[in-house]
Amino acid sequence: MANIIPTMIRKFANPKVISSLPAATVARRTHFTYVADKEAPVDGPTTKMNMFQAINNGLDLALEVDQSALLFGEDVAFGGVFRCSINLQKKYGADRVFNTPLCEQGIAGFAIGVANAGATAIAEIQFADYIMPAFDQIVNEAAKMRYRSGNLFDCGSLTIRAPCGAVGHGALYHSQSPEAYFAHTPGLKIVIPRGPNKAKGLLLACIKEKDPCLIFEPKTLYRAAVEEVPVAPYECQIGKADILRSGADVTLVGWGTQVHVLLETADMAKKELGVNAEVIDLVSILPWDKETICNSVKKTGRVIIAHEAPKTSGFGAELAATIQEACFLHLEAPVQRVTGWDTPFPHVYEPFYLPDKYRCLDAIKKVIKY
Amino acid sequence: MALIRNSLKIVRDITLRSSIRYSSTNFDPDPQGENLGTTRFPGANAPFVGTPSLLKPNQVHPIPIYRVMDRSGDIQDPSQDPNLSRDIVEKMFRDMVLLNTMDKILYESQRQGRISFYMTNFGEEASHIGSAAALDPNDLVYGQYREAGVLVWRGYTISDFIDQCYGNDEDQGRGKQMPVHYGSRKLNFITISSPLATQMPQAVGAAYAFKRQPNNHRIVICYFGEGAASEGDAHAAFNFAATLDCPVILFCRNNGFAISTPSKEQYKGDGIAGRGPAYGIATIRVDGTDTFAVYNGTKLAREYALKNNKPVILEAMAYRVGHHSTSDDSTAYRSSQEVEVWNSVEHPISKLKNYMLKKGWWSEEEETTYVKSIRKQILSQISLSEKKPKPDWREMFHDVYHDMPQHLKEQLAEMEEHVAKYKQHYPLQNFKA
């Protein structure tokens, strides 16, 4: 599949080209401000890392402890188009960190086979938008292998990483958030980190997990998200949501980059409306933390779910339906979903497409007034 | 590369005979091109030529079909006789007859509504047994669904087969898949799944993992039909196997049909073997009705794959004598006269039988006694398997994940409560309590 963004970056990296352009043309508008984790997930020495460095560090630690672990995908050998695998081939050899032919169904199928043989497979799909050719291997094969064989065989040592989400200018095929497609598949585990700490901990958890895991990494955070990350290996629990800010008036649920939009929205709501919002990072899409979400909603009586992916059958629909089922008597207002529109992800219209802080704030106004 | 060069040489020979103009310009390095220096394109290593010409598919000779034994069971070239012991050949023959007998009975039992589905192996027994015999029992097998003979050879029992088809409590697959979706950890046979060709890149991945193990002595074999070879996953598997140097035999059963689609509507090239050189893969085509040709071909492929850490494409030519499955009536798309030829003189079992008769290793009486005893075993197993309860219905929720997550625990509890309330509406008597 085409990988347009790094080529664009390389082109514009030429200072002559850049200096010949008016500044406004290259200025990047981001729809969020990164909020670093308040505390490290585990004790011990930390280092400042951005998200690609934290992932690189996680991969490094995984390859170091597990001699069977393999890292592969398109352009992984030279460090990856997002630098996540940088220096790893040099360190662990070309038989453990290597390029595959350009074929997603092959990458996923190959990875399942590696895992069948008991080795650890860490596969990369260059953009989550290009995971679709591997859909059959992931949904019909990886997810069902343990079940259909009566536990004779499994591919539990398989992890697939894929950069996802909006990036400012990624348009239709460098922006998608396909988590809901996979959330409909029993047998998979799906996680989405909100920053470096979470990315490293979730990655190491996925690699160790005895079920096939998908980890969707919001690509806009690779460089933008910087925080203190523990140097030692650690794991973040799959299936556990994080309450990032507590509040009593409304529950805001999101994941990935959207968490940072919601944190900013919560600041605005406090300042402009005097509303105390509880902000929850769902972290794990499958299985998801029903208990944490429902406890929060029972407390606040109001809930807004926000995600970049389109609304219809987005994962917000699953949350909304379950909240309605489990918290019916506690709800003071209808469950709100602030999401991408039911259109393909557009290029120049991205600012109008995303569920930004103003749309989220407006939803808070609606549920408070209801 | 060697194969490509050979085929180019063949083309050159043809063109030499047919046209002087072609021979002077077509495939020899062009003097003008050489003056321009050596080629520097990273994508191919080839000489320049000065005239454009299309390499047409018919300019490449078809890959020949390796055969050891003719239809009367005579070895054509004594140097090719694998000289297998009487015990081995007798096991080959008995296993083929067992598979054939079991197929006939289970096919009928589906017709009587006793099992929900079945697929026979008629006409392809030699591909299964010949290849399985040439492998090490530790070699890992990925199959499509018409390779039950490989399991027979490795020791999967009549009860293993029939319990799976009934999905009863003795089924190793726990009654979760349709009949003929066998699997065995003990016998290194990865559980079959219905989506075609998905097993192919998986087999390549497993072979890669084997290769990395110290003193590796295992290869992977992956079976698939010529129809499945049209799937994208087949392309992925061929290309990954070649570029990543994987010790895997990609074994194609080319039986002429994918359900109703004849192979001439499946591809236009030289079968599946013809694709091997294009991927840079060592390739062999064998007579899939000749047990010894399949055996020798697989043995050669295994040695090559293990020694060089490289893949082999093996195409076994055969004919699907039976219907595609119990849901198919093949008379709707082919003549019964055509089928009859492959069911008699060209049938793998009759060929091996002729060989054994000539050796004095087998007789009609022995066969009658053997088939009779096998039939008896299969029929009594059917009545046993039929009576065995299905697993506890709660197993429906097991093995989705390694550990049951909370939401599945809740759904299990919900169904338990429901079943307790409405038990008269569910076939609980058929399931283990």
Summarize the structure.
Chain A is of the alpha/beta class and 370 residues long. Chain A has 16 helices and 14 strands. Chain B folds into 2 domains: 78-385, Thiamin diphosphate (ThDP)-binding fold, Pyr/PP domains (Rossmann fold, 3-Layer(aba) Sandwich); 393-430, no CATH class.
Topology of this structure?
The complex is a heterodimer of chains A (370) and B (433).
Chain A: H1 4-12, H2 15-19, H3 23-26, E1 46-50, H4 51-65, E2 70-73, H5 88-92, E3 97-99, H6 104-116, E4 121-124, H7 135-142, H8 145-148, E5 158-164, H9 179-183, E6 189-191, H10 196-208, E7 213-218, H11 221-224, E8 226-230, E9 242-245, E10 250-254, H12 258-273, E11 277-281, E12 284-286, H13 290-300, E13 303-310, H14 315-326, E14 336-340, H15 350-353, H16 357-369
Parallel strand pairs in A: 2-3, 2-4, 4-5, 5-7, 6-7, 10-11, 10-13, 13-14
Antiparallel strand pairs in A: 1-8, 6-12, 9-11
Chain B: H1 2-18, H2 20-25, H3 31-35, H4 86-111, H5 125-134, E1 140-142, H6 148-154, H7 158-166, H8 199-211, E2 220-225, H9 232-243, E3 248-254, E4 257-258, E5 261-262, H10 276-279, E6 282-287, H11 291-308, E7 312-317, H12 336-343, H13 348-359, H14 364-387, H15 406-421
Parallel strand pairs in B: 1-2, 2-3, 3-7, 6-7
Antiparallel strand pairs in B: 4-5
Helix pairs in contact in B: 4-5, 4-6, 4-13, 4-14, 5-6, 5-11, 7-14, 8-9
Structure report:
- The complex is a heterodimer of chains A (370) and B (433).
- Chain A has 370 residues and is α/β, with parallel strands linked by helices.
- Chain A has two domains: 4-230, 3-Layer(aba) Sandwich (Rossmann fold); 242-369, 3-Layer(aba) Sandwich (Rossmann fold).
- Chain A has helices spanning 4-12, 15-19, 23-26, 51-65, 88-92, 104-116, 135-142, 145-148, 179-183, 196-208, 221-224, 258-273, 290-300, 315-326, 350-353, 357-369, and strands spanning 46-50, 70-73, 97-99, 121-124, 158-164, 189-191, 213-218, 226-230, 242-245, 250-254, 277-281, 284-286, 303-310, 336-340.
- In chain A, the strands form three sheets. In chain A, strands 3-2-4-5-7-6-12 form a seven-stranded mixed β-sheet, sandwiched between helices. In chain A, strands 9-11-10-13-14 form a five-stranded mixed β-sheet, sandwiched between helices.
- In chain A, helix 14 links the parallel strand 13 and strand 14.
- Chain B is an alpha/beta fold and 433 residues long.
- The longest helix of chain B has 26 residues, at 86-111.
- The model of chain B is unreliable at 1-34 (pLDDT under 50).
- In chain B, the strands form two sheets. In chain B, strands 1-2-3-7-6 form a five-stranded parallel β-sheet, with helices on both faces. In chain B, strands 4-5 form a two-stranded antiparallel sheet.
- Chain B is built from 15 helices and seven strands.
- Chain B starts with a helix and ends in a 12-residue tail after the last helix.
- Helices cover 43% and strands 7% of the residues of chain B.
- Chain B has two domains: 78-385, Rossmann fold (3-Layer(aba) Sandwich); 393-430, no CATH class.
- At the A-B interface, helix 6, helix 7 and helix 8 of A face helix 8, helix 9 and helix 15 of B.
